[in-house]
Amino acid sequence: MRDFDFEIVMGLEVHAELHTKSKIFCGCTTEFGGEQNTHVCPVCLGLPGVLPVLNEKVVDYAMKAGLALQCTIASFSKFDRKNYFYPDLPKAYQISQYDLPIAEGGYIDIEVQGEKKRIGITRVHMEEDAGKLVHGGGSLAYAGYSLADYNRTGVPLIEIVSEPDIRSIEEAIAYLEQLKAILEYTEVSDCKMEQGSLRCDANVSLRPWGQKELGTKTELKNMNSFKALQKALEYEIERQAEILRDGGKIIQETRMWDENKGETIALRSKEEAHDYRYFPDPDLPPIVISEEWVERIRKTLPELPQARQVRLVESYGLPAYDAAVITGSKAMADYFDQACTAYGMTLPAGQKVDQKGQERAKQISNYMMGELSRRLNASEKGFQDCPISPENLVELLTLIEGGTISGKIAKTVFDEMFESGKKPKTIVEEKGLVQISDEGALASVVAEVVAANPQVVADFKAGKDKAVGFFVGQVMKATRGKANPGLVNRLLMEELKRQ
Fold first, then answer.
1. Which residues form the Asn/Gln amidotransferase domain (predicted)?
2. pTM over the 0.70 mark
């Protein structure tokens, strides 16, 4: 972005709710939704005389995420109290980690416009979530009042803090996409951004090109979609640039994205660490993690997105683009692997499919990235909720490959499969869609079509290639789309040569 007046410097702080059944310090459910203030107890409400008890699964998941992000796991870490007064925080402090987090020093590799880059991760730490304020009027900017729902209070979080290595909006999006995929693959979080289980804060600053000193930053809070992140960054970068071009100074502050106005709005001056008056939580002992514990968690790590992407390219011959799209979602990648298994293409490590296998893998990819993704997006579903099972998709492709149905008929069958969930063979039989591959029957139809169109025959003999397409269309029309296209073409050429 050297055509821009300033160098953009950004870091992201991502909060991910851990996918545990109970909260971090009590036995209340973490289930999303429910009537307001019903998933609470004296512990998560911070009532006098209660004590927190750490959920061990939270530590397991935090370590698993840290290892997947190439971090070093601390053998000794502790919880701290982060003190601030806000209505969604019933204790008036948040139990978090400050100077001794559970994981540090990792990275995520991204690729933007063909260029690879490594984004450093400063730390991963555990903390409890705050409650949720429901603003009368729909948003904080227009609220006449706010109501507090504490169901979310005490839900376990990890916060992943990046280094200020991000230099463009495209890099920020790529980083968040890769981070989201890693958390989904490890199954430590469901990453449902629409439910708030993955939220992103962005630290944004600008500086003249060549300057080493960082500019004054602003923090954009709680963006819970990629679209919101992109729009908020676009606005904030231009807002800061205009101020600097006019000779002004950026104020270090916390801002929020107002979707209705399409702009960022100042919330409060940006707090420093000392403003939170951190101190070790006296009710929670330090966390001592043995090497054996770390190794036990390391053994549970799955094949991660980038490794899976490499495997799909090397083992199945998929184009790099296809592999990147498919592995961007765990549910989509699982669907692809299950479809390959249904096609009998389960491979031992390091082996490759033959040419036919590569063609089949590409067919699966084309359907998944094309029509299947389009229909799922339109119905607001993901591959985990796909009404067409991987096995049924492969059955459809097998019917096409074997000549039972044509590609055109397959579209009709596919639509019915998506709506009803029926097996393709059942649909083909019920609707009488079996492709006509009887050479004698088709030869008769071809002869009739050619005889009925002498002028088009003359056009063909005059070298007009479109004549063949006309004849193919007429044959398909006469057979209601059931004729085998390859056979039709061969019979047509034979018949036209006889004319």
1. 334-496
2. yes
